[in-house]
Amino acid sequence: MLWGGRFDEKLNHNAMEFSSSFYFDKNLFDEDILVDYSHARMLNGIGLLTDAELGKIIDGLARIKKEWDDNFWKPGNDKFEDVHSAIESRLFELIGPVAGKLHTGRSRNDQIATVMKLWIKKSSAAITKEIKKVQVALLTAAEKNTGTIMPGYTHLQRAQPISLAFHLLAYVEMLARDYKRFLGVIEECNTCPLGSGALAGSTLPLDRDASSEELNFTAPTANALDSVSDRDFMIDFMHACSMGMMHLSRFAEELILWTSAEWNFVRLSDKYTTGSSLMPQKKNSDMAELVRGKTGKVFGNQFALLATMKGLPLSYNRDLQEDKLPVFSSFETYTQSLGLIAEMVLTMEVNKERFIEELKGDFIFATDLADWLVLKGIPFREAHHIVGALVKKLETEKKKFSDADLDYLKSVNSIFDESAFECFNVETCLDRKKTYGSPNRAFVKKEIEIWKERLKAGS
Ligand code: ARG
Question: What topology is assigned to 357-457 in CATH?
Answer without folding.
Answer: Ribonucleotide Reductase Protein R1; domain 1 (1.10.40)
